[in-house]
């Protein structure tokens, strides 16, 4: 056996071991970017994918917050609350589709970026709002609640990055929750404003850039 063959035979096991190690590391990274309960992206994974999607002029940013989630947990137990979060995540992911991304930001708060091909995001989200209010399959029919949605077209605020658009969607969501309207679009009126995620009425909220309007 020549020297080259000997070297190759000695290197191959190392290369194979390294390939396995790389696959393991990638698996760990992917797991770290997935929420263990819902299977959605965590904040980091969502941010990476959403930032790419925002380069598309069709992009729409959505923030969703489960209404009265603490009441569900306190009344029916954490297992029921987990089932509600899982159902909410599945329904959001189904409506956003494979071209978009949905992430769980924490607790009962979710965010999404979808591509609005036909300019009908308002109609789609109105339907989604109704779907999210349905009882959870396999649970007591009483284990359900509404989900407040706030959304914004990225094209309406071309200078905003993901963080800025999420703040606007958050403001719209909060306005929808306060008015029990279910759904609000940011960018059409003067209701609430935030600074670094602080809604109106909180310390540090600004009053110079109100951004919340109706759902149309």
What structural category characterises the helix and strand content?
alpha+beta
Number of helices: 6
The end-to-end distance, rounded to whole angstroms, is 76 Å
- Taken from the alpha-carbon principal axes, the silhouette is globular
| Number of separate strands | 5
Helix content: 40-55%
Beta-strand content: 5-15%
- In spatial order, strands of the major sheet run 2-3-1-4-5
SSE pattern = HHEHHEEHEHE
Major beta sheet summary:
5 strands, mixed
Q: Which parts are unreliable, with pLDDT below 50 for 5 consecutive residues or more?
A: 18-31, 190-198, 200-216
Mean pLDDT: 82
Round the Cα radius of gyration to an integer and report it: 22 Å
Walk me through this protein's architecture.
This protein is 45% helix and 14% strand. The chain has 216 residues and is of the alpha+beta class. It is globular, with a radius of gyration of 22 Å. The model is unreliable at 18-31, 190-198 and 200-216 (pLDDT under 50).
Question: Which descriptors apply to this entry?
Answer:
216 residues, alpha+beta, five-stranded mixed beta sheet, 5 strands, globular, disordered C terminus
Topology, element by element:
Elements: H1 3-32, H2 43-53, E1 59-66, H3 69-76, H4 78-96, E2 101-106, E3 109-115, H5 121-132, E4 147-153, H6 162-179, E5 183-185
Parallel strand pairs: 4-5
Antiparallel strand pairs: 1-3, 1-4, 2-3
């Amino acid at each position: 056996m020549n020297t080259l063959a000997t070297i190759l035979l000695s290197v191959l096991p190392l290369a194979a071991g390294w390939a396995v190690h790389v696959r393991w590391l990638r698996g760990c990274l992917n797991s770290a970017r997935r929420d263990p309960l819902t299977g959605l992206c965590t904040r980091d994974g969502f941010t990476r994918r959403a930032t790419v999607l925002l380069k598309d002029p069709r992009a729409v940013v959505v923030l969703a917050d489960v209404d009265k989630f603490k009441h569900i947990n306190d009344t029916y137990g954490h297992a029921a609350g987990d089932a509600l979060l899982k159902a909410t995540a599945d329904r959001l992911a189904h409506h956003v589709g494979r071209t978009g991304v949905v992430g769980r930001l924490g607790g009962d708060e979710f965010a999404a970026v979808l591509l609005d091909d036909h300019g009908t995001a308002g109609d789609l989200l109105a339907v989604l709002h109704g779907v999210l209010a349905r009882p959870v399959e396999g649970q007591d029919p009483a284990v359900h609640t509404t989900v407040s949605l706030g959304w914004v077209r990225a094209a309406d605020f071309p200078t905003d990055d993901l963080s800025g658009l999420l703040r606007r969607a958050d403001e719209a969501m909060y306005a929808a929750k306060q008015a029990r309207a279910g759904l609000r679009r940011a960018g059409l009126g003067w209701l609430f404003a935030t600074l670094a995620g602080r809604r109106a009425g909180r310390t540090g909220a600004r009053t110079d850039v109100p951004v919340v309007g109706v759902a149309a």
